[in-house]
C-alpha cells in the first residue's frame, strides 16, 4: 500500500467519519450502511465516527443502520450535534458504550413512532401487526441502550404520549449518552455597564 504524503488533504472517509444530516430515509440509510461495510472491508480506519444531526426518519431505515452498527467489527462511536430526534436518537444510542458524545447545545427528542396506513381491512390488520412489532423493537432498543430497566420506565420517561425534549445532562442521567463535549474555547463574559 502506498504511503500518503502527510501534507495531502484527507477526506472524512480516510478518517472513518460518517456525517448524517437530515432525515434518515432509505437513501440516507443505504449510504450509511455502505460506508460502514466499506470501512470494515478496508484497512484504513480503526473505528467509525458517526456524527448525527437529524430530526429522525423512518424506523425501518434507522434499524437498518443500527443492525449494521451491531454487525461492524469496528467500534462505532456516535456524536450528536444540532438535533438528534426520534429515530436519529435510536441510532445515536446504539453507539459504542462509553463513546456516545453530545455537544452542549444538542437538542434531544424522544417520542413514540407515528405512521399512516391505508388499504382494505385485511391490509390494515396485517399492518397493525407490524406496528405492534415495531413498538416492541423500540422498547427493547431503549432497554438495551439506556439506564432504564423496565418497559414502564421507558414509556413513562421517554416514549410518552407527547414529545419528550431533553437536555444533554438529562440524556446522561437517563443513560442515553455518556459524555457531554466541553467547549474548547473559554467563555467570554460581558462587562456590565
Number of helices: 7
User: Averaging pLDDT over every residue, what do you get?
Assistant: 89
Please state the CA-atom Rg, rounded to the nearest Å.
19 Å
The amount of helix comes to 40-55%
- The termini sit apart by 63 Å
The assembly state of the depicted protein chains is: single chain
The count of β-strands is 7
CATH superfamily: 2-enoyl-CoA Hydratase, Chain A, domain 1
The total number of structural domains is: 1
Task: Tell me the CATH architecture.
Answer: Alpha-Beta Complex
H/E topology pattern = HEHEHEHEEHHEHE
Biggest beta-sheet profile: 7 strands, mixed
Please indicate the percent range of residues in DSSP E strands (runs of 2 or more).
Answer: 15-25%
Reading off the top of the CATH hierarchy, the class is best stated as: Alpha Beta
Low-confidence stretches: none
Question: What structural class do helix, strand and pairing data support?
Answer: alpha/beta
Structure description:
There is one protein chain. With 193 residues, the chain is α/β, with parallel strands linked by helices. The chain has a single domain, classed as 2-enoyl-CoA Hydratase, Chain A, domain 1 (Alpha-Beta Complex), CATH 3.90.226.10. Helices cover 40% and strands 18% of the residues. The chain contains 7 helices and 7 strands, in the order αβαβαβαββααβαβ. The protein has helices at residues 12-15, 26-41, 59-71, 87-93, 121-145, 151-157, 168-173, and strands spanning 17-21, 48-54, 76-85, 100-102, 107-110, 164-166, 179-180. Strands 1, 2, 3, 4, 5, 6 and 7 form a 7-stranded mixed beta sheet that branches. Helix 2 (26-41) packs parallel to helix 3 (59-71). The protein is globular, with a radius of gyration of 19 Å. 28% of the residues are buried. The model has no long low-confidence stretch (mean pLDDT 89).
Amino acid at each position: 500500500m502506498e504511503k500518503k504524503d502527510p501534507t495531502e488533504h484527507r477526506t472524512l472517509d480516510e478518517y472513518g467519519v460518517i456525517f448524517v444530516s437530515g432525515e434518515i430515509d432509505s437513501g440516507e440509510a443505504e449510504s450509511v450502511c455502505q460506508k460502514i461495510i466499506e470501512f470494515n472491508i478496508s484497512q484504513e480506519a480503526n473505528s467509525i465516527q458517526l456524527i448525527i444531526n437529524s430530526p429522525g426518519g423512518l424506523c425501518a431505515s434507522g434499524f437498518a443502520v443500527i443492525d449494521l452498527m451491531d454487525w461492524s467489527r469496528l467500534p462505532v462511536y456516535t456524536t450528536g450535534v444540532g438535533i438528534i430526534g426520534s429515530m436519529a436518537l435510536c441510532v445515536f444510542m446504539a453507539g459504542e458504550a462509553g463513546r456516545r458524545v453530545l455537544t452542549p447545545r444538542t437538542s434531544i427528542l424522544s417520542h413514540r413512532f407515528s405512521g399512516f396506513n391505508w388499504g382494505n381491512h385485511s391490509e390494515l390488520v396485517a399492518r397493525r401487526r407490524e406496528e405492534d412489532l415495531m413498538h416492541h423493537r423500540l422498547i427493547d432498543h431503549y432497554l438495551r441502550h439506556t439506564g432504564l430497566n423496565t418497559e414502564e420506565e421507558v414509556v413513562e420517561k421517554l416514549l410518552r404520549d407527547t414529545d419528550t425534549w431533553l437536555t444533554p445532562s438529562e440524556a446522561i442521567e437517563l443513560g442515553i449518552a455518556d459524555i457531554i463535549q466541553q467547549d474548547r474555547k473559554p467563555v467570554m463574559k460581558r462587562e456590565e455597564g
